Amino acid sequence: MKSQANLTFVNPPELGAPKGFSHAVVGTGSIVFLAGQTALDASGRIRGENVVAQFEQALANLLTALAAAGGKPSDLASLTIYIVDMAEYQANSRAIGAVWKRLVGNQYPAMAGIGIARLWDAEALVEVQGYAVLPT
């Protein structure tokens, strides 16, 4: 188990070693529910022509909402990624991982990637939604 002030990351040896996520996260503090974010810019337009660029914008949007609620990237406890083209996402996983590390760091919350037919905005390729636990 790895811990910080408000989160403990649980990765039991009975489960496969996680890569890019944690199996469970225990939090102590105030919970922040973060709405799904796509690559919309402030004008309401989708930014980015590919999944990597859109993931970066969507994650930056989620982190902006988290900061406005008083949190920081290390407070993320859970993240769900909705993916329109799973094959493209997987083919770009290293570049997506590099975006994650640049914006969030080397800490990984409990995560799920879900393949879907489309998102609300037809141009959107990815959407991220999460939960954070702020220290009390």
TrEMBL record:
Lineage per the UniProt record: Bacteria, Bacillati, Actinomycetota, Actinomycetes, Mycobacteriales
Family (UniProt): Belongs to the RutC family.
InterPro entries named among the record's database cross-references: RutC-like_sf, YjgF/YER057c/UK114
PANTHER family: 2-IMINOBUTANOATE/2-IMINOPROPANOATE DEAMINASE RIDA (PTHR11803), PROTEIN HMF1-RELATED (PTHR11803:SF58)
Gene3D superfamilies: RutC-like
CDD domains: YjgF_YER057c_UK114_family
One Pfam family named in its UniProt record: Ribonuc_L-PSP
GO cellular component: cytosol
MF terms in GO: deaminase activity
Highest rank taxon of the organism: Bacteria
Protein name from the UniProt record: Enamine deaminase RidA
